[in-house]
Amino acid sequence: MAVPKRRMSRANTRHRRSNWRADAPDLVPITLQGRRHLVPRALVPAYRRGLLPPPG
Length: 56
Hints:
Elements: H1 10-18, E1 27-32, E2 35-40, H2 44-49
Antiparallel strand pairs: 1-2
């Protein structure tokens, strides 16, 4: 396990933590049952196959 040799300042710690976050998923438009929906790109095949119900 990596262990820091020196103490990191509070400002550097907070700056590092503020950049570590999840990104919003890419939403792409698809047409299901004649209606247009925005769904995450990774789930498009599941929606097209009918594995997931159309989003509300």
